[in-house]
Amino acid sequence: MNYRHAFHAGNFADLVKHAALLEVLSRMMGKAPPLSVVDTHAGAGIYDLAGGEAKRSGEAEAGIGRLLAATDAPAPLAALATAAREAGRDGRLYPGSPWLVARALRPADRYMAFELRPEEHAALARTLRGRRGVETRCADGFAGATGAIPRDGAALLLIDPPFERPDDYLRTVQAARAALARNRRATAMIWLPLKDLATFDAFLSDLEDAVQAPVMVAEARLRPLSDPMKMNGCALAFVRPPAGLQPPLEAICGWVVERLGETGGAARIWTAA
């Protein structure tokens, strides 16, 4: 695979994913017992938006750059903007999921971050060095997720592959099914690109059949799904989501589509049952 998230860090899809992640973490932590978080595709953990990859794509400028300049962002996106500023250098560094999770951990919480690419894992390990309750593994997160999920207790499984390999959709479903069967209290949060309806609908159908549970879906379509060669939007699929998640998801997706989308874009939160 030639995917490198550094090209896409801080784009519109990251805004949706990471604002939603902060909301999920807040709701699953609260006054709840210790939480275990397992991340199948952690990446480098933090990204330099002044680097060559980010500058070449320009996606961050049209994503986190717009958010940091906004005065009307809803609370979940404002929380992400605050985190991005805390990451350092006045917004030059963009925090990925590992940085955001590690920042939110309470003393008894645990975070297991998988990253298969050695160079990305080395960067991840540097980013998270010294963080209490954090472990990183240079390994296949699809294969390792099930064993990393505790058999009982509060747990969150993050699945965010690049979706460049033909079997990424299948392995996502398999990983979610195995982990959620191991722990009946676990929540899964899955990110995926929106390119065409056929692929999206087939994935959701397979996921529902595999987990035997309702799936909450949040869609941010920046444009109509008419060109399958483009990433026309993104979606999040939640299995066993925490209570009260729909309103903040509506605020996140609605703002991103309205402020960053094109004519014909749409935001939608719904439950596939």
Question: What would you say this structure looks like, in words?
Answer:
The protein is α/β, with parallel strands linked by helices. It has a single domain, classed as Rossmann fold, CATH 3.40.50.150. Helix content is 42%, strand content 20%. It has an eight-stranded mixed beta sheet with strand order 5-4-1-6-7-9-8-10, with helices on both faces. Helix 8 links the parallel strand 6 and strand 7 (187-194). Helix 1 packs across helix 4 (75-86), helix 1 (12-29) runs parallel beside helix 5 (97-104) and helix 7 packs parallel to helix 8. The model has no long low-confidence stretch (mean pLDDT 92).
Short characterization:
With 273 residues, the protein is α/β, with parallel strands linked by helices.
CATH topology: Rossmann fold
Report how far apart the termini are. Answer: 34 Å
Number of strands: 10
Helix content: 40-55%
Order of helices and strands: HEEHHHEHEHEHEHEHEEHE
**Broad structural category:** alpha/beta
| Unreliable residue runs | none
Shape: globular
Radius of gyration: 17 Å
> Average pLDDT value?
92
Specify the number of helices: 10
CATH architecture label: 3-Layer(aba) Sandwich
What composes the largest sheet?
8 strands, mixed
Beta fraction of the residues?
15-25%
